[in-house]
Each structure stands twice: as C-alpha cells, then as structure tokens.
Design brief:
single chain; alpha+beta; 3-stranded antiparallel β-sheet; two-stranded antiparallel ribbon
Length: 97
C-alpha cells in the first residue's frame, strides 16, 4: 500500500458551507443532503428547484460563490489572513498527496 503525505492547504470558507438570498429564495452550498459528510452541491428552497432539480437562483448564486482553494487555484491568503478572491475568511484543509 502506498504511503501518503498529508499537506495543509488554504481555502475560502465558501468551499464547505455557503448560503445567499437570491430574489428572496435561500440558496445553500454544502454537504448534500445537509447532514451528509459526502457529496457537495447547491440547493434552493424555491418550487422550481424542487420540481426540476435546478433553477435560475442556483445559476445566479454559482456566480456569487467564491470557492477559492490554494491547492487548485494557486495564490496564498492575504497578509491579514483573508481570501485573495473575495476577502472572506479562510481555513486550512488537509489533503493526502
């Protein structure tokens, strides 16, 4: 069995949990379903999402969510420990490489 090295990489907190109001509807990004520890996705509380599984609110919210990860996108947090893209809080994620 191969050995893995565990490395810590910075990411914006919107990578794990994020929510926004879009045209009066709550759009949530996080574990799907919310209690699960697997599978991330974006869900909306509108009737259109419940019927079709997608809606215009989700499409608009996808453009609003940062989702920055140093491991994927490069860069480092700012000097004051903020996300370089949106200026929000960052957290360290551990990856086996």
């Amino acid at each position: 069995m191969p050995d893995f090295n565990v490395e810590a990489h910075w990411c914006c907190e919107t990578v794990r949990h994020w929510q926004a109001k879009v045209e009066g509807h709550l759009v949530y990004w996080g574990p799907f379903p919310p209690q699960a520890a697997y599978g991330y996705g974006m869900i909306c509380d509108c009737k259109g999402y419940r019927f079709r599984g997608t809606c215009r609110h989700v499409k608009q919210a996808e453009e609003m969510r940062c989702g920055w990860q140093a491991f994927v996108h490069g860069d480092e947090p700012t000097e004051d420990g903020k996300c370089p893209r949106c200026g929000g809080p960052v957290t360290a994620e551990r990856y086996a490489v």
